[in-house]
Amino acid sequence: ADPVSLPRLGPGSMGGMLALPQGKGPHHVGCTDVMVGHTRQGLFLHLFYPCLLRAGASEPLWIPRSEYCAGLADFALRRRWCSALLSITIGSCRVPVSWNGPFKPHSGGYPLIIFSHGLGAFRTLYSSVCTELASWGFVVAALEHRDHSAATTYFCTAEAGREEWIPFQRVPQGQKEFYFRNKQVHQRAEECVRALRLFRDIASGRSVLNILHQDWDLSVLKDNIDLAKAAVMGHSFGGVTAVLALVKEPSFRCAVALDAWMFPLENLLYPEVPKPVLFVNTERFQTPESVAKMKRLSSRNSRTKIITVLGTVHESQTDFAFLPGKLIGRIFGARGTLDPNEGLAITSRAALAFLQRHLDLEEEFDQWDDLLEGVGDSVVPEAPFCRSNL
């Protein structure tokens, strides 16, 4: 349903091989990890934000710890022993942002995006799109879900130094996939809602302890986020999570769903989606059933848009698109034919135009409004099943 692709381990591919682009917007981007609470009911997220330039700032690792390589190997290859190879190959890749960089204040407050990852992914695997959005003046909170859909994740218990890991879980034998995934999508959407509430607490001046980095003080966000301008976004399983979050939380004003995997959402809920959604699909992933569900939403809400980026596959909307080389053993199917930088530009510009429109932003993102109608190079309206030329 939702594979994640991994690189072929070729000679000369050690370290530094991931070429994630820097944000194209006017702001430098910083990031930090935020974990609140000592139980599963807390939250874990990677925060991207406009930051001030600081000499000697370090860049964070793309794969934050070796446990995530093990989780990826187990999820994508069903071979945990590959994790050492993955560690060697991608373990030293870095993201071109300032780790714990000083937050850049903004008197009007930045709009907020809560981002939800796909199945078998985790909080850092969408750094390219999150960095791009932050560079245009958004605070982006990329969640790491605790519903057993992440490749792996953890929380820190109240006992000093003790971590509890939450592994990826496949659909149990004998259980219908829909019921298993439906329960997960509800938990994921609730985590998105809790994340929004977390920022509400910070904005109201409540003291919120980040148990990972006491040196990066969450209170700097207090007067710098505009909670009247909050959106929810995600890829694949995260795309449908974003749609459901609109139902659960009226404060989210719109959703951007990248190649949404619509399967886990019960039909009963489609009439309940009150706000506009931008569906940005890739050329190869969607099924007629999934697109029919998107069209149910667009037929009820003229502000909901569906576009398809030609020359792209499901992984084109993740950071994996920026890994060079062939995919391991070609297990994961075709690579997109569209240059990943081009794909990222189309996806992020369409998102920015949509967010300007529905968050009432006073920016110049409307210069990309044509993309919302599927007008432009490598983009078409709706979902053209007959056109695939990959």
From TrEMBL:
InterPro entries: AB_hydrolase_fold, PAF_acetylhydro_eukaryote. Keywords: Hydrolase, Lipid degradation, Lipid metabolism. Gene3D superfamilies: alpha/beta hydrolase. The active site is at S236, D259, H314. One of its GO terms (molecular function) is 1-alkyl-2-acetylglycerophosphocholine esterase activity. One of its GO terms (biological process) is lipid catabolic process. This is 1-alkyl-2-acetylglycerophosphocholine esterase. It comes from Oxyruncus cristatus (sharpbill). The gene is Pafah2.
